[in-house]
C-alpha cells in the first residue's frame, strides 16, 4: 500500500465526513445561520472564534471548515498525482476532482448568498456525491490491487467479467441507479418533502398516495427508487455470488452493498417515523453516499478489463499474466 | 518547489472563491416613495372597531425552549417559554388583527418614527408586530452572543443579516404590503417573530387580555382578519359608522 493510496483513502474518508457534516446542516436547518460567504460574520473563515460556534453556526461553519480542509487535501492529491503518477488519465482525474471541489465550494457559497434556492442546493448535494465518487475512484486506482488486477487482465478470473454480460451490465448500471435515487432524495430533502408521506412502510395507510402534490410525488418517487435500487443491488449481488465465487474482490463489495441497502432503507423509514430527527436523517444521507461509493467500487472492478492500463498489461511481461486468480483477487481487494 | 506549487494552487482556489463571492441576495431595502400626507377622509367622520380574541378551551402550555446549543442563551435567558400561545382566562394574545379589505384606493399619511425589533434573552421582542410599507424597521442585537436575522417574505425581498456584536443595529424597510413576514434566527432555531406589513395604519396586536382596537377608521364596510401563527386566520365583516364603535370578536380553537 503506497503513501499516495493511503492519502487518497484519507481524502475519501474526509469527504464522507464532509457529506455527513453537510447533512447535519440541512437536517438542523442551519444552512443560513452564517449569512455571509466566504467570510463568516465578517471573519476570515479560519479566524472565526471557536467560542462563537454556537447553535446553527456549529454545523454551518463546521461544514465550511471541513470543506476547506477537503479542498486543501484535494489540491495536495492533484499535485501529488501530477508529480508521481505515470498514467496520464489518472493525472487528469486529479484535476477533475480539484475542479469539482472548487465548483462545489462555489455552489455552497451561492446557495447561502441566495437563501438556499432549491436548484442550487440540489446541485450542491448532487455534486457532493460526484466528488465523493471521484475520491473513491482515486483511492481505488491508486491501490496496489487495482494495478495488479490490471496486469493480470488476460487471466480467466478477470476475463470472465466480459462473458457475464448481464452481471457486468447490472454492476455498471448500479452506480447510475443509486446516483439518480440520491438526486431524487436530495430534491425531496431540499423541497421540504421529507415528511410529505408521514407513515412508513405504508403510504397514507395504503400503497399509493390518495393525492398527488409535488412533495408527495417526489417523496413517493424516492420510495419507489429505493425499491428499484434494492432490486438491482440484490440481483447483482446474487448473480455475483453464484457466478463469481472465486472473486472476493467482487463479492466483498456486493455483500457490503446488500447490507448497506438494507440499513439505508431502515434509516429512511426511521427518518420518517422520527419526524426527521437530525442524526437519523444525516445517517441516511451518509449511508446513501456509502451505497454510491460501494456500488461505484463494484462497477469499476467488474469493468476492470476495459481500462487503458488493463489493455496495456496485455502486452506486459509473462510474470504479470501468470498471476493466479487467488493472487489477483487478494491484490484487487484494497 | 513542491511547496511553491502548493501555494500557487491555494492562491488559485482563493481567487476563484473571491470572484464567486460577489453579489448576494441582500437586495432591496430602499424605502419607496412616501405616501401622500393628506388623509383621504374627514377624521370627524371616523368610527372604531373594538373587540377581543378568545381561545376555545384550555390554552396549550407554552413549549419550553431548549437553549442549550448556545451557553450564553442558556445562562442569560430569563424566559424560556415559547410565545406561540400566550393569554389568560380564555383570551388569546399575539394575534395580529387588521383591516384586510375595505380600504382599497385610500391613501394615508406615512407613519412617523421607527419600529423596533429587539433580540434580547435570545428571543425576539416583540414576537408579533406590525409595520407600515416604507416605515423603517430597526433591528437590534442586545445579546452578548451573535444572531442572524433572516426574513423570508414572499412579496418583499428576502434578507439575511448577521449581527455578531452586542449593540449592533441595522435598518430595513418593506416595499409591499404582506401579512405576515416570518423572521427567524438560524443560529438559535427557537427564535422566530412575525411582522405584518400594511399600507394603512389599521392594525393591532392583542395582549394577553385578547383585546384590540382599530381606531379612527373611515366609515364603511370592512373585512377584519385575525391572524395567529399556529391557529391560522379568521375573518369577519363589519360596518363602521361615524362616531360609533363596532364590536368584533374572534374565537380560535385547535
Task: Characterize the structure shown.
- The complex is a heterodimer of chains A (334) and B (254).
- Chain A is mainly α.
- Chain A has helices at residues 3-27, 55-84, 88-113, 118-141, 144-151, 156-163, 165-190, 214-243, 248-273, 278-302, 308-313, 318-321, 325-332.
- Chain A folds into two domains: 1-142; 153-334.
- In chain A, helix 8 packs antiparallel against helix 9.
- Chain B has 254 residues and is mainly beta.
- Chain B has a single domain, classed as Sandwich (Immunoglobulin-like), CATH 2.60.40.
- Chain B has helices at residues 2-20, 71-76, and strands at 47-55, 96-101, 115-119, 124-125, 128-132, 137-141, 147-151, 159-163, 169-172, 178-184, 192-198, 203-205, 211-217, 220-228, 232-240, 245-252.
- Chains A and B meet through helix 2 and helix 3 of A and helix 1, helix 2 and strand 8 of B.
Outline of chain B: globular
Second-tier CATH architecture of chain B = Sandwich
Structural class of chain B, by secondary structure, is: mainly beta
The largest inter-chain interface, given as chain pair and residues per side, is: A-B, 36 and 34 residues
Largest sheet geometry of chain A: none
> Span between N and C termini of chain A?
8 Å
Number of domains of chain A: 2
Helical content band of chain B: under 10%
Number of helices of chain B: 2
Number of helices of chain A: 13
**Helix share bin of chain A:** over 70%
- Catalogue the unreliable spans of chain B: 1-38
Rg of chain B, nearest Å: 22 Å
Give me the CATH superfamily of chain B: Cupredoxins -  blue copper proteins
Mean pLDDT of chain B: 86
Q: In terms of quaternary structure, what is this?
A: heterodimer
Order of helices and strands of chain B: HEHEEEEEEEEEEEEEEE
